Amino acid sequence: MADLRSLDGLEVFMSGLPGDLTDQGLKTQLSPFITDRLGFTDWACQKARGKNFGSVTFLYRVQGERFLMIYGEEVLPGLTRRGRPRTRARLTLLGGNVFCKQSNRQPDPFLLGTLVKTAEDLQQERESHQELANDKSVVFKVDRLSCGHYEYPNGTFAYTKDIEWPAEGALNSAKFGRDILIINFAYQSNSIRVEIPYRTIHEIVVAGRPTSLTLTLWEAPRFFELINQDINSLMSKLGISGSAKNVSRARLTQLPHVSANHAEILGQSLVYRLQVSPTDFEPKLRRLKEKERLTISYHDFLSVSTFGRTSMAGGLETFRRLVDECNATSVVPFDVLFELQALVHNGYLLPQTVEALLRRLCRTVNTSSTNGSSSNMANGTGGLASNNRDINGLNRTSSSFPFSADAFKKLFSQIPFPGPDVDADTFSLDEIWSYLEDNQREIRQGITKELISERGRQNLIMVYKVQVMPTRFMLLGPEPEAKNRILRKFPHHTGYFVRVQFCEEDGQDLYFNARVTLELIYKRFKSFLLQGVHIAGRQYKFLGFSHSSLRAHSVWFMAPFVDHNSNFQTYSTVISDLGQFNEITSPPRCAARIGQAFSETPFSIDLHDLGVQVEYIPDVKSKDETRVFSDGVGTLSRSLMEAIQDALPQTRGITTCFQIRWGGAKGMIALDDTLDGMVMRIREESMVKFKSADTRYLEICDMGNKPIPLVLNRQMIKILEDMRVGESWFFDIQNRELSRLRMIAAYVRNTVEFLKRQKVAEQINFSRLIRRLHKLGIDYKRDAFLCSVVETVILREVRLLKHKARIPVEKGVTLFGIMDEFGFLEEGEVYITFEKHKLPRCRDVDICDKLVLITRSPALHPGDIQVRRAVVPPPYHPLRSLSNCVVFSQKGQRDLPSQLSGGDLDGDIYNIIWDDDAVSSSSREFAPADYPRVRPLDIGREVTMEDMTDFFVDFMATDQLGVIAVKHMILADMKEGGTVDPECLTLAEMHSTGVDYSKSGIPINADQMRRLTRTKYRPDFLAPAPPANIVDRTEIVFEAPKAPALEDEDEESGPKYQYYKSSKVLGKLYRAIDEKKIWKENIHRIASSQGTSVWDQLSRYFRNECEKLGDVNWRPLQDDARRIRQAYDDAIWSASMDYSDNSTKGITELEVFTGYIFNKSGVQTKRQRDKSVRLKDEFDRIAKWAESLIRKKGIQSREDDGVDGDYDHTVDGESSGSESESASDDDFNLDLSALELSIACFHVGILSSKKSGRNNSDFQSFKVIAAQCVLSELEIALMKQQMAF
């Protein structure tokens, strides 16, 4: 703070300002006087809307004094009637006199700090010679706005409007700003605002007769109604909810219309036309094109007769009736009807087109049934598919039905947007039927069968999904999902369950903006939860949600069905079968208890078959029984532990603790080596949450099968700084990691080790491919895709380091917490045990009888990090049998886990640091927080489904956990006391309340939040990262810096913050990393297009090696190779869509291959982090499956074999027989069929792939997998040949 307070600025007070001006508006008006005339750039304005006074702060006092000399008010002789000195204004703004004088208060030091940072940022941009992006707005006057659809009547491309809004008044405009199109118009006394981000615009078709801009959109626009400030103020005074003093607009679910219902066609009519004034149309159009942000084409629409045009609303109604009829008669299987409805509902095809397709399907099926009923009956198909289900329990088409659901799902990747350059035949019924026939021929090859089976082996199941947005909903899937208890109970009926996600139009969480009320959006969400959704003839309604899905804003719906025991299953029967919930009178608690059945539990163990004896044991408590030391943890015998391990796939080593769900119980169970037989011990008081008879299966959520590397975060670093941990320690560990990241791309050995440690495409051993290329003298950096894979993963780590302070601690670990069942540990002692060889860069570890730092995230209270002594039990003590956990003592007045950010032992993980430099320098230690237990919301009666849905929506609308955490970081940096400051302590307690909100139903106190220091200044380490994008789907490019958008004040999507240079350790660590410099100097390499490509060099090498083997004839296998590639590309496309937040625009192949969803801001959202974990697993499955096809082998798992060894135990640098690639002793016959198919796949892979559909891409990764397969098969063949001779 000292450096900020030493800045010598000056604040100028201004009166007589127009009331409508804001900070930005005032700056716009003052710029000609201060920036243009005086040449001063380092100044800022403060002005509240509605007030006639404000201020200007100059970074340099001398500049402020110069401004006052010219524009300061002039003092005149005499006094006013009120006895004040007479003055005369020397500044005029917007026709009014403005009086300026030196303020009687000192400038805000944090505002001066933001001016310093802004000046330095601009100087750096100038020095880097980067041009500022062209952000100047282009404004058209709007005469009419309409929404509709494209079609081809009589083969002519035409726009058909479904609803039109004539713009009333003279102030209607369409402004193309920096990143967004904003349309403002008046209609029926409503002031309407429409926001269309550029990223959602596929194409703009320009027409001259009449002058119009017709936009094809990927997703629905955002609609608002501007709120009259006088009415808003009155509502606020009257206490009417939904309006606050600063709310300026209300988010709408549709545009109002005097006679039409916009909502019924909004999701399908995604073409919007702006009929604009012809005045200056061409010059404005040229300026719009100069932005180079939008795809613009020209087409004068012909005046086509309305005869033959379609009505979207009428077509949708007719289509829905036909779908219901087909479902009722079982003529068309549900899975096909789902995809057909999705094609219409998601806006891919017109309802009239799909209606005609469905009628043709029905005719084909009826004809087939009539002509071949006896044959079908003989084959057991009966001509219908209503009872035919796959391994996922989804209704699947029988062999008598002409097309499978997968054939229809593939249409999503083949159907383009209609447009002036797209042929009318593309959308004809015959063309779509031809697509389906081709798709079905590929599916009959059975290539994807093993991929489906592999998902089943990994306990995944295919689940339908629904995305509910502010304006529409979309049908997605089926997508792979981890099993839960409900899905496991009805394995043959999973098609009756859907996962429903509530989100923004782009798939992200709704963004909180204090200026916008979202009441209508949440009202729509609540209505959807209560009424359910009609899909392909079935009515799905609310069922429940888990704790994690509540935070992710997703729930489960179900449709009634008759199960395999002929029982009719509904919401009531499914829930009652789980357990007894009628005694729970708190909606959030009841939802949480039911939600245990929805927790993802990939594995389950049949306890009855194993003969497991379940025992209930009491909890271990403090002497006064106010503290529970065993909160959430039980035990199991070694025999049961080994039985569980045997039942789990791909387990290595010994796992001694498991996170479980069992009946109504949840928590951890840990090995107790003193137990004999098959025994599980459950602590009834702390583990059993509700009574249940559903106890046959033990479900495994997670397990301690390896140590988790410890990385710091910003909250931990701030507390450690307040504990006086030396600043040098933070820089030492950050610089060590930064040096490692800088050197990764410099040497292939480093690259290989890094890729292996990060497990990038580990199932095809991608790191080994890079090493093999190096050994052959081929530089992988000559290929753009290979280069981008490496660069993406390095940049991810650099950005996590800089923007999240995710600094790895080599002398640290993260582990599950359990309790010492034997009373060995004394108060204040812990036992830390883990498998050292599974922890990257773990050197000699001595954690015996030494002090350690221990904490749990999130840590906001200064007492959330404690210093304790780590001890090791003597040999043969039962505790020594444990691994990959931290064991806490059962002695003392208070259990340690509850002192660490309110932790317990039901699955929480804890962070431990034993680095002497950190521990020894922590000279301050703070008492842990001890908050009173929050009493949950109690409605005094049995909880209903409506109560739980109400809570779900209330939670979405009021959850402020992220806001509190950020506010805590800001104030901890601004306040001298750091996390010990009273306001930070208050925020820490509020955060604890917010964490419990999902179970207690008690939200944070909003009034308490408002009483805290309010500031628009933030430390620089919270500033957004320089935006970076994936260009051409393979290359990462940083965006050009953007100049302040003075004229685009109304583009604000939320509060605009100003950033100052933090003088605390977080700010210093942040500024020590120049990510753009590291990107340019150490990471990014431009792939050379000169010389021989990587793939041509590999091709030549393959040809030379094959000559040594003799007759290697791969050319006849090219058709097989093409089919494999097509199936692989389809799988990659499906993954790109399934794991994208935006259900209409897929992620890139680069993201799929690396298992990392790229965020242009540099920091993933929680949803993106969770999806990235699942995406990585999915790509591993796809890669394993593709390798098995290419090499003609069954799918084999490549288990993690550590991070070392790439250059060890090898012959000439190559593995001498790992991964099933060695020749067996008794088989030296040269069967080259796998090699031949691998080479054929490689040659097919290096060709450009067929592009089609909306997300058309030339996928690159198939050749990478094929190349690795060729190298492996060549190695085996040459080894066999050598051994044979």
Shape: globular
Kindly state the percentage of residues in helix: 25-40%
**Major sheet summary line:** 12 strands, mixed
Q: Spans with pLDDT under 50 lasting ≥5 residues?
A: 234-244, 373-387, 1045-1049, 1198-1228
Number of strands: 47
How many helices? The count is: 38
What is the rounded Rg? 33 Å
Q: Distance N terminus to C terminus?
A: 78 Å
The percent range for strand residues is: 15-25%
Class inferred from helices and paired strands: alpha+beta
Task: Please tell me the overall pLDDT.
Answer: 88
What tags apply to this protein structure?
1285 residues; alpha+beta; twelve-stranded mixed β-sheet; seven-stranded mixed β-sheet
Structural write-up:
This protein is of the alpha+beta class and 1285 residues long. The protein is built from 38 helices and 47 strands. The strands form 10 sheets. Strands 8, 9, 10, 11, 12, 13, 14, 15, 16, 17, 18 and 22 form a 12-stranded mixed beta sheet that branches. A 7-stranded mixed beta sheet has the order 28-34-31-32-30-33-29. A 6-stranded mixed beta sheet has the order 20-19-21-25-24-23. Helix 37 runs antiparallel to helix 38. Residues 234-244, 373-387, 1045-1049 and 1198-1228 have low confidence and may be disordered.
